Amino acid sequence: MAAPSDPNTDPDAALMLCVKRGDDAAFTVLVDKYKQPVMAIAFRILRDATEAEDLAQNVFIQAYKSADRYRATARFATWLFTITRNLCLNEIRRRSRHPADSIEAASEESGDQPGRQFEDTKGFQPTEELLHGELERKIEEALAELPEIQRTAIVLCRRDELSYEDIAEVLGTSLSATKSLIHRGRETLKQKLKPYLRTGEWEEPPK
User: What kind and span of H or E run contains 180?
Assistant: First the structure.
């Protein structure tokens, strides 16, 4: 489990504690900061832009409703991304019960909105040697083919503020299992994207 967050060093946790005390302006600051990352993560898990937008709204609604129970036992980002993943998993389970809806949504996403993605300033940029356009689509396709938990681990790993311990907290796995998921995911992506990389390398800085 991730170490407790110190509001003195995690300004977002401090803001959420202000929300807990009834400061709605503090919550607006958090929404403005995290709405794009939350939508980007939801999109990469669900592969559906409309559902990602709707889910992001629900994430912040749930976060606001949970403010009175909030404790800084982890980084705010960890807490918020845990809510995001849990709601995504609920949506995946809903899809499994209503596969026709999923097929229709997937068709709309792949056919009518081929370029629709969410900007994420800390998004998936594995190496500066990747080109743009077609290569970015290949990255997204390769990510989409990973199992959900590996895909989520890789996406979260690209967020500088999250340690491996934080990612393990979001995924609900042990630290060693999280490192293994990230390693396997990187290796799979490296092999899939090797024809599109100049060096074939897929390196990440240690966390």
Answer: helix 175-193
